[in-house]
Design brief:
single chain; alpha/beta; about 50% helix
Length: about 230
């Protein structure tokens, strides 16, 4: 913070929105969520969508869902139409759920097509291998009051997870898996993609609203900060 303060006080440099964005990210990453909010409220300009989104995501990563939901409501009120609608060329766009199960109980659930069933079976098979590699489903972000096993299934049906499985089935072995999502990729899917990249020996390139994630051999280029 001393360096930030010295910009204007010592060198006469007026901080830009990018500078404020970086400070919020730094404070939130270190766990100083209240300080990050206080910093935002004292900004001499209107905080951008990216500033609020960064704070919301960092609250979620730090496990403070109450604050995360609060900032999510602020973003929805201030920026109701901020979602990108332009998919990047060469990437698999993720929109609604790829798999849409028909009505029925868990035991007699029927899938829309054979292709959907293959996607689901692939994800189930991968899940067992992933757990052997240390994967633990991050179900705390599933806010619905349902059984823990159903929470795991809900996470497994995230649109980016389904798109990745579809790509694994339709592309040649060792081919890069490329996904684009117009929201931030969820924490669990990010962790899952890293482990899957190691299991299947493929590189995952995931573009979300924040950045490109290059995942290979269990590691991501973002170093788990995005």
């Amino acid at each position: 913070m001393l360096h930030f303060d010295s910009m204007s006080k010592v060198y006469g440099i007026v901080p830009t929105m990018d500078h404020y964005f970086d400070i919020v990210g730094m404070l939130g990453t270190c766990g100083y969520l209240d300080e990050a909010l206080d910093f935002i409220e004292k900004m001499p300009m209107e905080p951008s969508f990216e500033v609020w989104e960064t704070l919301m995501n960092l609250c979620r990563i730090q496990g403070n869902m109450e604050l995360s939901n609060r900032y999510s409501e602020i973003m929805e009120e201030l920026y109701p139409s901020h979602l990108s609608k332009e998919p990047k060329a060469g990437l698999v766009p993720v929109t609604a759920s790829v798999i849409a199960p028909k009505e029925g109980t868990k035991k007699n659930r029927k899938w829309e097509s054979l292709g959907d069933q293959k996607i689901y079976e692939l994800l189930k098979g991968l899940k067992e291998q992933m757990k052997e590699e240390g994967y633990v489903p991050e179900t705390r972000f599933v806010l619905h009051d349902i059984h823990p096993e159903e929470k795991e299934e809900a996470i497994m049906s995230h649109s980016e997870r389904l798109a990745a499985a579809s790509s694994l089935l339709k592309t040649p072995a060792r081919h890069e898996v490329q996904i684009i999502k117009n929201l931030r990729v969820c924490v669990d899917c990010h962790f899952a993609f890293k482990i899957i990249s190691k299991i299947v020996g493929r590189k995952f390139i995931v573009r979300d609203v924040k950045r490109f994630h290059h995942m290979e051999d269990g590691k991501c280029s973002c170093n788990d900060y995005w």
